[in-house]
Design brief:
single chain, mainly beta, 4-stranded antiparallel β-sheet, about 0% helix, about 60% strand, elongated
Length: about 110
């Protein structure tokens, strides 16, 4: 089973138990969050596609940590004018773990 979710203008393909990094989101470390912008769910042979979101679908995640990503070097150079500029950037990120994916009409496995 997997789902495609929308966070911060980007799409992520997630599965239960998976750990992934997103741009910084508000939320306490160790606390659960429920994400409701789910555009697609695939469960075995069942495919649900939303227009734009799947009604009643939820992805439960837990915030693991807030940190900063690796440094990205930005180098600008113009020939013949001896212009050079080096700049760096580190993006704030949030690491999350997917706990469960739920949707209406889901069969419960026992």
């Amino acid at each position: 089973m997997y789902a495609v979710i929308h966070l911060g203008g980007k799409q992520y393909k997630v599965q239960p138990g998976m750990t992934f990094k997103v741009d910084y989101l508000e939320g306490e470390v160790g606390k659960p969050l429920e994400l409701d912008k789910v555009s697609m769910i695939v469960d075995k042979d069942k495919v649900l596609v939303g227009k734009p979101w799947v009604d009643g679908a939820r992805v439960k995640v837990t915030v693991l940590e807030h940190s900063r990503d690796k440094k990205v070097q930005v180098f600008t150079y113009k020939s013949k004018t001896n212009f050079k500029r080096m700049q760096g950037h580190r993006q704030d990120i949030t690491t999350m773990r997917v706990e469960a994916i739920t949707y209406p009409g889901q069969e419960v496995e026992e």
